[in-house]
Amino acid sequence: MPVGRGHKPVGVEPPYYLLYSVDTSLSGAPFTDLNEDASHVYQVTSVSGPDAGVISSAGLLDQAEWMADKAREVFLLRDPATGRWRYPLTVPGYKVMHRELDTEPGGTSDPTDGIISYVQRFKLEWTPA
After folding, report:
1. Cα 124 to Cα 24: distance, rounded to the nearest angstrom
2. Range of the domain at 8
3. Which of 20, 23, 113, 125 has the CA that lies 20 to 30 A from 103?
4. pTM to 2 decimal places
5. Residue 4: is its pLDDT beyond 90?
6. Residue 70 phi, psi (nearest 5)
7. If you ran DSSP here, which 8-state letter would residue 91 be given?
């Protein structure tokens, strides 16, 4: 599905995802020091809407929850055989040492426009490779 970085993807109607960088914390020197770790929090907002025949509020909530499941899968799923992340994040010079679901307030709706959004925040901890 389309993903907008901090705003709605151009020319796209729901369903789509919004991705925000929410918080960054460093331990010690700047992260560019290459001897320090960093923690980033990203918010993924799943935006559900009347697409593909989904028109009831229950159907929109189901769609938003399905999208939230897919976001959790992308951030948190590990390969059962190897224990490695199923969807690795490749950043030259760094590796992800920890991923977690930071908070999940869940779904909210706006009954005036038939849109339901579902908010999750994921925490990624990085270390120099």
Report:
1. 10
2. 3-128
3. 113
4. 0.81
5. no
6. -65, -40
7. B
